[in-house]
Amino acid sequence: MSRYLLPASVLGTAVGGAVLLKDYVAGGTCPSKATIPGKTVIVTGANTGIGKQTALELARRGGHVILACRDMEKCEAAARDIRGETLNHRVSARHLDLASLKSVREFAAKVIEEEERVDILINNAAVMRCPHWTTEDGFEMQLGVNYLGHFLLTNLLLDKLKASAPGRVVNLSSLAHVAGHVDLEDLNWQRRKYDTKAAYCQSKLALVLFTKELSRRLRGTGVTVNALHPGVARTELGRHTGMHRSTFSSFTLGPIFWLLVKSPQLAAQPSTYLAVAEELEDVSGKYFDGFKEKAPAPEAEDEELAQRLWAESARLVGLDLSRGSPVRGQSLSRSPLEQV
């Protein structure tokens, strides 16, 4: 019988070590224990994955959490789940389709009218490597949802955030931004052959540049903004990549994926950290990889590019450059691409 004890012991040690290594690689739980009673939080794309888990974490900490989602059936279900798990009844679902400028404006207008304050905005929603689709307004889908929709939403809520200061904006970017390039002459892939991977990387780089320029504009207001790579997580975001359907990926790379890929719960911890940590109150314009501040890609540090991207983004979504509000008299039912 004793001859089986050593192999079993070795196996147990190996399994235990693997689990500990996975936890280490995944980054662990949010190191801040800060609570946010009385604060209002908006999380986009919060019906599933990292967004839902982030909303759950912030509801646990006492926040009034608004789940902003396109699919209201899933959004309402997620809100019910979070209320039930946290016993926080101040968790609500609201419609927001980031692929529609009209929807973004309607959502922002309702928040401004009905909410006394907005303390934290987490721009979490994203699409990844989808086919060459376009938004309601004619934008390339990944640029429109991941970046332009959030650009407009944030600008429309800035006055509310400033009035509620101290406030925070958290932009979920990705490590993929390092492979991105912002082509201001062809942001919407009208001239180039469409590359879904490059389009995703461009959208995530745009978010880091947006973070940098927004931080500059917010100096002295009490509102901070930071960008974040949450890590690679097991969520629905990768549904268009085909990796989960690949036999090679499942069997050959499965152990590597198991080690490196986070659960949505763990992937939500960095977002939670940037939203609540007291030690980050004055930190702004930075890029975080998990819980650690890191230097982004060189192109993401280009201040002139950040300012030019801001101006072009404002033009595309119909935002007044001087006031940060919709341009009066501009028809927004037409695609901005038709106005070029």
Automatic annotation (TrEMBL):
UniProt keyword list: Lipid metabolism, NADP, Oxidoreductase
Cellular-component GO terms for this entry: mitochondrial inner membrane
InterPro entries, A to Z: NAD(P)-bd_dom_sf, Sc_DH/Rdtase_CS, SDR_fam
Listed name of the protein: NADP-retinol dehydrogenase
Domain of life: Eukaryota
Entries under Pfam families matching the protein: adh_short
Molecular functions (GO terms): all-trans-retinol dehydrogenase (NADP+) activity
Pathway it works in: Cofactor metabolism; retinol metabolism
Family recorded in the similarity comment: Belongs to the short-chain dehydrogenases/reductases (SDR) family.
Chemical reaction(s) catalysed: all-trans-retinol + NADP(+) = all-trans-retinal + NADPH + H(+)
Assigned EC number: 1.1.1.300
Any GO BP: eye photoreceptor cell development
Record flagged with keyword Signal: no
Keyword NADP annotated: yes
The organism's taxonomic lineage, starting at the top: Eukaryota, Metazoa, Chordata, Craniata, Vertebrata
